[in-house]
Amino acid sequence: MTDKTPMPLWEVFIRARSGLPHKHCGSVHAPDATMAVQAARDVYTRRGESVSIWVVPSAAIIASDPNEKDQLFEPTSTKAYRHPTFYDIPDEVGHM
Amino acid sequence: MSAELTAYSISLADDALVLGHRLSQWSSLGPTLEEDIALSNLALDLIGQARLFYTLAGQIEGKDRTEDDFAYFRDAGDFRNVLLVELPNSDFAHAMVRQLVYAAFAHPYLDALSRSSHSGLAEIAAKAVKEIAYHVRHSAEWVIRLGDGTDESRRRTIAALDALWPYVDELFEMDAGERSLVAAGIAPDRAAIRPVWDRTIDNVLREATLERPSQVAVARTGGRSGRHTSDLAAMLADMQVLARAHPGVTW
Amino acid sequence: MYTQALNAKDASAGTRPEDTARLAVFQSTVDAEDKIEPNDWMPDGYRKTLIRQISQHAHSEVIGMQPEGNWITRAPSLRRKAALLAKIQDEAGHGLYLYAAAETLGVSRDELYEQLLSGKAKYSSIFNYPTPTWADIGIIGWLVDGAAIMNQIPLCRCSYGPYARAMIRVCKEESFHQRQGYEIMLTLCRGTPEQKAMAQDALNRWWWPVLMMFGPSDKDSMHSADSTRWKIKRFSNDDLRQKFVDATVPQGQFLGLTFPDPDLRLDEESGHWHYGEIDWSEFKRVVAGDGPMNKQRMAHRRQTEADGAWVREAAMAHAEKRRQRAAAARIAAE
Ligand SMILES: [Fe+2]
Ligand SMILES: [Fe+2]
Ligand SMILES: [Fe+2]
Fold this sequence. Notes:
The complex is a heterotrimer of chains A (96), B (251) and C (334). Chain A has 96 residues and is of the alpha+beta class. Chain A has one domain: Phenylacetic acid degradation B (Ubiquitin-like (UB roll), Roll). Helix content of chain A is 18%, strand content 21%. Chain A is built from two helices and three strands, in the order E-E-H-E-H. In chain A, strands 2-1-3 form a three-stranded antiparallel β-sheet. Chain A starts with 8 loop residues before the first strand and ends in a 23-residue tail after the last helix. Chain B is mainly α and 251 residues long. Chain B has ten helices and no strands. The radius of gyration of chain B is 18 Å and the shape is globular. The two termini of chain B are 34 Å apart. Chains in contact: A-B, A-C, B-C. Chain A binds chain B through residues 7, 28-31, 34-35, 38-39, 41-43, 46, and chain B through 32-35, 37-38, 41, 134, 137-138, 141, 145. The structure holds fe (ii) ion (3 copies).
């Protein structure tokens, strides 16, 4: 390409319906934030998929290290007491 | 009044169809994939608007003419679109300046039409005005970037402004039929739209560090009375070729 | 399929000894039908195969806009025009999603474009055939998109997360493409004798090239066992082709069309449609670049790339100006 600087990549998050969280749906290339929102609108909301868009420069995403998966996420699997089913409540008490 | 109303609805449809057709010719030619998709969105909005205005025209006319009868079985001389929309595509600056010039007019115009005393027109306009609002925004952002981008993009944007400027006045022209619709509270007064158009254009040009063309070229008009450039005839010859080769069939 | 040129064995698929442990983790993740994500360790061969496959797929979507694009301006009704434009727009989107998936593997869209334009990367042979009549639009939707769907549905379960997610999105959008095409065929076949002849002529021209979309026969395919082990490819070329023929022949019969294959017959025992010998020399010729439209397709794409360069440069220059102005304003304010 003759272009000197490549267009930055943006991650796109859309809110499908009012009340729902924004969810990652893909990415677009755009020169700046304003055009990234427009590109996201044109690319990812052509079938009424969205009521709100976020765009984030892909380079700004900080991700956890997959190699640390074990130390980050494994320990919680043994903490059953965080889940309601861990506790025995007699049926007579009703829904709790 | 029904003849004037039919003609009016057809002219609104013709503007939308011809510009939509020009935009559709950008498919697979956009400067980025993202923009390719955006250009098709603009085209689809306009083609959709054209279909609604043609269908309404057919209903008002009462002769069972369909959207396709209007689009495919009239000659260039029967089309009532402004010349601005029929000019052949050139570069992307031309496309975005044309879109801005048109949408900066169509947005306030459709907004006014959405309050028309004619409910059919008002309904279509209410839907279309939301679409066109985005056309203004999208084309304005591009004109700003191209005007205040590189030397080349600036040169191309100025060239597009110079080339398209003579076609602006026609957007505000009204014939006797349309004036009677204005008097009846059906059609908006185009003259009243001009100050809004001026403001939108001047704001965008200022941000784009551009100015209005200084050379006052002679206004080019005639589209509303069917006097078109040969480019429209060429465009229609292509667009209508298949439909006319097999008249009366279903596709 | 869209990645049918993926038949060269990757010579550099060796692994370093220190990777053995990580390779075991990788393979067990794949075996467990878990997804591999961009930051996870993966063998070089896996990464390379994915980049090649995803980018070929992306190129096919983008080049595939052209044959149908040939009829946008001439679509015979406004309804068809809008549908066709929206359909081709979807294909641009598919290309975009797929390029984005490839980018997660560390290659930029610009690099991938360069590979396409230099001829290093391939795209599906099917898009090198011309579209002289309106019936070709019906055929492409019905058969080309139909064949693509056969291939793409299993890819929704591919082991690489971003590719699988892109394919899910693609498949959702594809659902109208085939119906759009079949509806065109149905209308032509129920229309005038001329329209019906147009439909038959299109089927005659496209049937064999469409069967070639699935790639070489399994006995000649060098499709590495790797792709299967890595759960990138789940069905063999011939399996998918057979599935497609079985699904398509009754649809064609419903249209009242004749397939241009004298050997086509239902095998009562297996329940499969037996089809005749495919002319693989034509396939090889078209993949190698000597199809009826290869040159036009590439020239068109090259033109688009060249014409857009100044726009992209301008947009980037403007963004840089804004950054500088904002910085200057900040300094002035301090
Ligand atoms: Fe496709
Ligand atoms: Fe596709
Ligand atoms: Fe498709």
